[in-house]
Amino acid sequence: MAGVAKPLSALLLCSLLLLCTSTAMIHGKKMRLASSRQPCKRLVFYFHDIIYNGKNAKNATAAIVGAPAWANRTILAAQGHFGDLVLFDDPVTLDNNLHSTPVGRAQGLYFYDGKDVFTAWLGFSFVFNSTEHRGSINFAGADPLLNKTRDISVIGGTGDFFMARGIATLMTDAFEDDVYFRLRVDIKLYECWEKA
Amino acid sequence: MAGVAKPLSALLLCSLLLLCTSTAMIHGKKMRLASSRQPCKRLVFYFHDIIYNGKNAKNATAAIVGAPAWANRTILAAQGHFGDLVLFDDPVTLDNNLHSTPVGRAQGLYFYDGKDVFTAWLGFSFVFNSTEHRGSINFAGADPLLNKTRDISVIGGTGDFFMARGIATLMTDAFEDDVYFRLRVDIKLYECWEKA
Amino acid sequence: MAGVAKPLSALLLCSLLLLCTSTAMIHGKKMRLASSRQPCKRLVFYFHDIIYNGKNAKNATAAIVGAPAWANRTILAAQGHFGDLVLFDDPVTLDNNLHSTPVGRAQGLYFYDGKDVFTAWLGFSFVFNSTEHRGSINFAGADPLLNKTRDISVIGGTGDFFMARGIATLMTDAFEDDVYFRLRVDIKLYECWEKA
C-alpha cells in the first residue's frame, strides 16, 4: 500500500505545486506565466517627431546627425533615407493631438537602414516625471516601416517600470512630408515587479 | 514521533519542490533553471557585411554615417577605425556562402570604439519573415574583434522569439580588405516563452 | 475529519511552497523575488571620459562622430549640445582617481538629445578581463544629466555577469569644462545566474 501511496502523493504534490507556484511568484516578482500571454501592464501613448529641415529650428524635435558620404544632414537621403541617423527628444501624449499636454518625453535615436526596403531601427526611452508616472521605459528593435504594425522589445525600465520587459507595438499614426510623423505605441509588459 | 516527522516531511516537500519547479515553469514561461545552463533554443546563422567604399554602391550593404573630425565617411579611419559608425542591412544566411538565399536580414549599427585596441560595439536585430521563422531577435554588446569568439547579449525578441533572452557568440568567419566581412552568430537562448 | 484535513494540508503545502520556492530558485537561476528588492549583486565603479577637442588627441578617450547640420565635430554644440553623438572607450576604475589602474573599459556611445533641457542617452558596455571580473555588462537608458542621480537599465551580461539584469544608478562625480567628466556607476543586479 505504502508503495502505491508515495507516487500518488508525489503526483498530488506536483499538481498542487503547479497551482501554487503562480501565486508564489505574484508575491515577489509579478511575472505572468500564462500561455495566454496576458500582459501584466498595458499602456498606450503617442509621440510626435518633427525633423529639422533647415527652416523649422523652433519647432523641430529631432535632427539628422549622421548621414552617408553621398548625403547631407539637412534633407533626408534618397532611396529610403538609407544611412540617415536621427536623434530626437519628442513629446509623448495620451492622444494623437500634437498640442495635447505632454505626459513624458521620447528620447533616443533612429536610423534608416534599409537599402532596398524602407526600414528603420530604434533605440530610445520614454521618460516620465509626472504625478501619474515616474521613471523610464527602454526600447530597442527593428522597425519595418511599411508594415502596418511593428513589434519592438521593451528591454528594461526604472522607477514605476522597475525591471520591466515586454513588447511595444508601433503604428505610424500620421506623417506629413519628410518632416512630421506620429507613432502610436502600444506597450505590453509581460514582466512586472511589484512596488518596493 | 510527530516532532521528528514534521521536519522530515518538510525536507521531503522541499526536495520534491526542487524537482517539480522546473516542470511547473515549463508550462508557462519555459525558463531553464539548470545550473548546467542548457539553452532552451539554439540557432546558428551567418551574416555578410559589405561596407560602401565609394566604388561599390550596388553591392554595399553598409555605410559609414558617422566619423570623427579627422576622418571621412568613405574610407575607414586609421588606428583601429576609432570613431567610425556604420549602419547596415545585411543578408542573413544559414551557411557561410554570401550567395545563399537569405533567410533574414541583420539590421542595425556598429562602431569602432577602441583607440588602442581593435574593438567594436553592436546594436542590431535579426529580422525574419519566412515560413521557418517569423519575428525578430535583438542584440547589444561589446565586440572585442581580436578575440576568436565574443559574447554579446540577446536583449529581447518578438514573434517566434517572443521575450527571448540569451547570449550570442560571434566569430569573424572571414574578412577581405576593409570592405567585406562575415560573422558567424551562435545564438543560445536561456529564456524562451511557449507559443501563445 | 479527512474532509477538513485536506484543505488544511493544501494550505500548509502552499505555505511551505512559498518558503521553499525562493530556495529552489537559488539553485538554478538566482532570482531574488523579494518585494524588498534586495540586489543579488552590487558593484560600484567610476569611468572617465575625455572628449577630443582638437588639441588632446593623446589623452582623449572619446570623440564626437555625429553632429547636426549647424554644428561641427570638434566643439560640443551650443544649447545643451543637442545632436552631438559621442563614441567612447573609457577606463573603468574602482575609485574616483583617473590615474588608478583600470579594472575594465567602458565602451559605447552617448548623445545629447535634449533641445530644451540638458539630457543624454547612453548605450554601452563594461568590459572586464582581469582576475577579479571576466565578462561584460550591457547598459541602455536615458540620462537626464541635471538630476543628481539617474537610473538606467542593465539589459544583459556575459561571462561572470551571464544573463544579468538590473538597474545602474549614475552620478556625475566631476566635470571640467566640456572635456573631462567622471561618472560613478552603482550597479544593482536583481537577476543573477549561478556559475556554470
Q: At the first level of CATH, what is the class of the largest domain in chain A? A: Mainly Beta
Helix content of chain A: 10-25%
Which of globular, elongated, flat, extended, rod-shaped describes the shape of chain A? globular
Which architecture of the largest domain in chain A does the CATH hierarchy give at level 2? Beta Barrel
Strand order of the main beta sheet of chain A, please? Answer: 2-4-5-6-7-8-9-10
Helix/strand/pairing category of chain A: alpha+beta
The pair of chains with the biggest contact is: A-B, 46 and 48 residues
Straight-line distance between termini of chain A: 49 Å
Oligomeric state, counting identical vs distinct chains: homotrimer
Question: Short description, anyone?
Answer:
Chains A, B, C: Belongs to the plant dirigent protein family. Chains A, B, C: It comes from Rubroshorea leprosula. 3 copies of one chain form a homotrimer. The first copy, chain A, is of the alpha+beta class and 196 residues long.
Search tags:
10 strands, 196 residues, homotrimer, disordered N terminus, 2 helices, AOC barrel-like, eight-stranded antiparallel β-barrel, 15% helix, alpha+beta, globular
Notes on the protein architecture:
Three copies of one chain form a homotrimer. Chain A is α+β, with helices and mostly antiparallel strands. The first copy, chain A, has two domains: 1-30; 34-195, Beta Barrel (AOC barrel-like). Chain A has two helices and ten strands, in the order αβββαβββββββ. Chain A has helices at residues 2-27, 78-81, and strands at residues 29-31, 41-50, 62-66, 85-93, 104-112, 120-129, 134-143, 150-159, 165-176, 180-193. The first copy, chain A, has an eight-stranded antiparallel barrel. In chain A, a hairpin with a 3-residue loop joins strand 9 and strand 10 (180-193). The longest helix of chain A is centred in the first third of the chain and has 26 residues, at 2-27. Chain A starts with a helix and ends with a strand. At the A-B interface, helix 1, strand 7, strand 8 and strand 9 of A face helix 1, strand 3, strand 4, strand 5 and strand 6 of B.
